[in-house]
Amino acid sequence: MRVTDLALGTVLLLVVAAATAGWVDAVVGGGGLVQLPALLLVPGIAPVQALATNKLAGIAGTSVSAATYLRHAPPTARPSVRTAVPMALLALAGAAGGAALASSLPGAALEPLVLAALLVVLVVVVARPRLGETTTQRLHGAREVAAAATLGAVLGAYDGLLGPGTGTFLVFALVGVLGLAFLRATATAKVVNVATNLGALLVFAPQGHVVWGLGLLMAAANVLGGYVGARTAVARGSRFVRVVFLVVVSALVLRLGADVLGLA
Q1: HEC profile for 27-65?
Q2: Which residues cross the membrane (predicted)?
Q3: In the chain, at which end, N or C, are there fewer CB atoms within 10 A of the end residue's CB?
Q4: Is the dihedral of CA 244, 109, 119, 85 positive or negative?
Q5: Three-state SS string across 98-156, please?
Q6: Are 62 and 207 in contact (CB under 8 A)?
Q7: pTM
């Protein structure tokens, strides 16, 4: 499949979707909610090709947004090496494992579980308006490393297998389990997202599932969105990130709810 084979309107839709996804993903995660459905609209593309191409575009945007957070975020909002490194390493391994299963396990089988988890996330964040406002570290030392590694492995596997909402789940896990503020959680999640996208690509690329021309075009748009999104989040702070988080989770709930009920 080549970009030149697609209608101009389809290409423009994919570019806009990728830029929007990059912005959303950089601020709070969940860019796959925008980007993956757009890819699935491409005539003739298989679901596993759409998932693989989404990872190629996503790794470009998350790499840029992670670097932007590391460079421009205040020191208190930058990722902690103790948290980010073990989480990213286990997430990479988990994503590779999930990607290996992606072509054999239908994503629809997981959608009711994902929907239930998102509803819990939404209720908790709405019920606790001060959650994630500041960093209040709950775990220390080996317990912190173990928790970060476990979260990375589980959410990495989900990202390789299905994808949409991974960044959102990462942010919530870092806020709810480790006690990070929303801005620092988002910055850390971007580092982990780079690893999950890489882990999935290490499986998808050799299998020939990546549509490279289309993926690279969308990657360029995703980079632009990721950079702007990260700078916006740094400038506006944790309260802004929390609001966007609630909007994205609500959108994910509506989207998955429609799928589960057969309305989409």
Answers
A1: HHCCCHHHHHHHHHCCCCCCHHHHHHHHHHHHHHHHHHH
A2: 50-71, 83-102, 108-127, 169-189, 209-228, 240-258
A3: C
A4: negative
A5: HHHHHCCCCHHHCHHHHHHHHHHHHHHHHHCCCCCCCCCCCCCHHHHHHHHHHHHHHHH
A6: no
A7: 0.84
Domain positions in the chain are: 3-260
Q: How far apart are CA 90 and CA 88, in angstroms?
A: 6
Residue tagged 């995703």 (tokens): 222
CB 87 within 8 A of CB 188: yes
Token code pair at residue 264: 């989409």
Is residue 259 within a helix (H) or strand (E), and if so which, with residue range?
A: helix 238-260
Closest CA to 205 of 100, 135, 112, 126: 100
Whole-number Å distance between alpha carbons of 25 and 60: 12
Amino acid occupying residue 131? L
Per-residue pLDDT of the chain (264 residues; tens, 9 = 90+): 676 677 888 889 999 999 999 999 898 887 887 888 888 888 888 888 888 999 999 999 999 999 999 999 998 888 888 889 999 999 999 999 988 887 666 655 656 766 777 787 778 778 877 766 777 777 788 899 999 999 999 999 988 887 767 888 899 899 989 988 889 999 999 999 999 999 999 999 999 999 999 999 999 999 999 999 999 999 998 889 888 888 888 887 887 788 777 775
CA–centroid distance for 237 within its chain: 19
| C-beta neighbour count of 179 within 10 angstroms | 18
Tell me how far apart the alpha carbons of residues 237 and 76 are, in angstroms, rounded to a whole number: 11
Burial class (CB within 10 angstroms; exposed 0-12, middle 13-18, buried 19+) of 175? buried
